[in-house]
Specification:
CATH class: Alpha Beta
Helix content: 25-40%
Strand content: 15-25%
Number of strands: 4
Oligomer: single chain
Largest sheet: 4 strands, parallel
CATH architecture: 3-Layer(aba) Sandwich
Structural class: alpha/beta
Amino acid sequence: MDLGIKHKIAIVSGSTAGIGLAIATALAHEAALVVVNGRTEARVDAALEQIRQSVKNDRVRGVAADLGTAQGVETFLSQVPEAAILINNLGIFEVKPFLEIPGRGLAAFL
């Protein structure tokens, strides 16, 4: 399938395992310039290795940063200041009305 995203920068937050990793891998198959994100360097490196084994795409890179914190977002944005595609695979851990969710993390910068 050709989604028309070849060479576009695609950020996938929370992409070191599960659905996020599957999405990052699918985007790499489409020749997007994928940025993998996780909270630790070890998890990001492991995810990158897994994607590179599946897809012969050397344009996959990672940024270790906790996007649930302002410092993590600043770290991430200093390394990836822009992108064409954002897949936000992060969320809150408790049920609460939308308007009561504090403006934290990546959403506060959008």
